[in-house]
Amino acid sequence: MKLSIVSGLNESKSPVDEVSKKFEALCEFLKNLGFDGIELSLLEPEKINIFQIKEILNSYNFEISALGTGSTFIRFGYSLGHYDETLRQKAIERLERYMEFAVETNALVIIGLIRGRYSSQSSPKKERLNIISSLKRCADLAENKGVMLAFEPINSFEIDSYNTISSALDLLQEINSSHLKLLIDSYHTNLEEDPGFIWEDLEQISSEVIHIHLADTNRRAPGTGHFDFRAFLNTFKEAGYKNYASIETIMKPSFEDVARESIEFLKMILNR
């Protein structure tokens, strides 16, 4: 199992060379701590100099584990389930930009907040159908480009659709694409799943999981709350999971502190 942590690059507001320098500094810092890669939360990946990024990755023998796409909904209001067809199309177009970046960096593209929230101007049924239709188009794009999509169940306080693992699996079965797999987040799992059955359920669906997010019950660094990360991660490890577990938390007191605390705790859990 490989380890990464989420960071932004502020690519929408910074000069290209400054973005590359920030990325290199992140790679150096995280590599020295023992991370295998970095997960990037981006808004406009097309503004990044991909050639410089690839050179930096090669020089540090580092990877980009995944690309977060939630900013597209948060900043632009585009979503896969939006009642306005124009905004749904814009969400798909933005996801295609992420996929183009992913092609060059062998990263996953995450489908999380970008599916949006339900609107009073529509209905839950209609917006779920919109999500399904939009996601089928995204899966086709991913297949054509050779990119993997990671669908994330998110708790019902933050989003209105596909909050549980079982509902996400039903959706993946309906889409029926080999390029669409599951992302499991420990924080959302703790909020939404039945604690009496979750460990057995995770073992059964581990083959569908392509990416993992880690945050404790307080949404801070693993080991600072009450989540059983040893049982959680060992379930996947014993099932032969070889992909990334990526820290996605509130970065307090600082990104550097979270990175140091998390990698130390996770190395102990995983016996690395």
Major beta sheet summary: 8 strands, parallel, barrel
* Strand order in space, largest sheet: 1-2-3-4-5-6-7-8
> H/E order of the elements?
EHEHEHHEHEHEHHEHEH
Stretches where pLDDT falls below 50 for ≥5 residues? none
Helix content class: 40-55%
The CATH topology annotation reads as TIM Barrel
CATH homologous superfamily placement: Divalent-metal-dependent TIM barrel enzymes
Radius of gyration: 18 Å
* Cα separation of the termini: 10 Å
CATH architecture: Alpha-Beta Barrel
Estimated structural class: alpha/beta
SS strand fraction: 15-25%
**DSSP E strands, number:** 8
Number of helices: 10
Overview in brief:
The chain is of the alpha/beta class and 272 residues long. Helices cover 48% and strands 15% of the residues.
Structural description of this entry:
With 272 residues, the protein is α/β, with parallel strands linked by helices. It is 48% helix and 15% strand. It has a single domain (2-270), classed as TIM Barrel. The protein contains ten helices and eight strands. An eight-stranded parallel β-barrel has the order 1-2-3-4-5-6-7-8, surrounded by five helices. The radius of gyration is 18 Å and the shape is globular.
Features:
TIM Barrel, single chain, 10 helices, 272 residues, eight-stranded parallel barrel, alpha/beta
Task: Give the arrangement of secondary structure elements.
Blueprint (H helix, E strand, L loop, with lengths): L1 E7 L7 H18 L3 E5 L8 H11 L2 E6 L2 H6 L8 H21 L2 E4 L12 H22 L3 E3 L13 H11 L4 E6 H7 L5 H8 L3 E6 L14 H10 L5 E4 L7 H16 L2
Parallel strand pairs: 1-2, 1-8, 2-3, 3-4, 4-5, 5-6, 6-7, 7-8
Helix pairs in contact: 1-2, 4-5
